[in-house]
Specification:
Elements (H helix, E strand, L loop, with lengths): L11 E7 L8 E7 L17 H14 L2 E7 L1 H7 L1 H15 L6 E5 L11 E4 L7 H22 L7 H4 L5 H10 L20
Parallel strand pairs: 1-4, 4-5
Antiparallel strand pairs: 1-2, 2-3
Helix pairs in contact: 1-4, 2-3
């Protein structure tokens, strides 16, 4: 069972991002503030939930959250500032959109860049430990998966509706056969030999 909060007396925003390891598409981040003492029998790290369960949990998060927001960092921005900085920027942009200002930020992972003057706590594998981070991971993953599915209509050969841009064998095989799209990250190692890609 995930913990409902890190403290007992602060407004906490859980933050997480998805898409850092992808070869194409944006990094997507989310921030969620849940009511104190919140519980949910299914809520967990988004990677531990199948699509049907994620979709059901998403509706509960949107209905129950005090505030939530999603932000996107484009593939072009990832190429410009690198993927780690893109993940920080995405979480900052999500926090910017919250209608309630948190007093503590819970971040999935071991690194974060200070956001305004609000204290933060980095938690390794936090999406499997705290409700608010897990909720952020669910919202971010659903948003990004749906975005990549839409992009796959114009680029079906890469099977983004299935691999959502991650470096699967079939994704890399499509890059070898068809080259890259405007949505691929040029700063990433798309193939062992990239001389013929650009």
């Amino acid at each position: 069972m995930l913990l409902s909060s890190y403290t007992t007396n602060k407004i906490e925003a859980g933050c997480d991002e998805v898409g850092r390891g992808c070869l194409a598409g944006p990094v997507v981040a989310a921030a969620v503030i849940l009511p104190y003492g919140y519980s949910h029998h299914l809520l967990n790290d988004s990677k531990q939930l199948n699509k049907r369960k994620r979709d059901g949990v998403k509706n509960d998060i949107l209905n129950d959250a005090i505030a939530w927001a999603i932000a996107e960092i484009s593939h072009a921005e990832v190429d410009k500032i690198n993927v780690l900085q893109a993940s920080f920027l995405g979480m900052h942009r999500a926090l910017d959109q919250l209608t309630v200002v948190p007093e503590l930020i819970l971040v999935d992972g071991n690194r974060f860049k200070n956001y305004r003057s609000i204290p933060h706590q980095c938690i390794v594998k936090g999406d499997g430990k705290y409700m608010s981070i897990a909720a952020a991971s669910v919202l971010a993953k659903i948003y990004r998966d749906e975005l990549m599915e839409k992009l796959s209509f114009s680029h079906p050969e890469y099977r983004w509706e299935k691999n959502v841009g991650y470096p699967t064998l079939e994704h890399r095989a499509a890059i070898i056969k068809y080259g890259i799209t405007p949505y691929h990250r040029r700063s990433f190692r798309l193939l062992p030999d990239q001389l013929s890609l650009f």
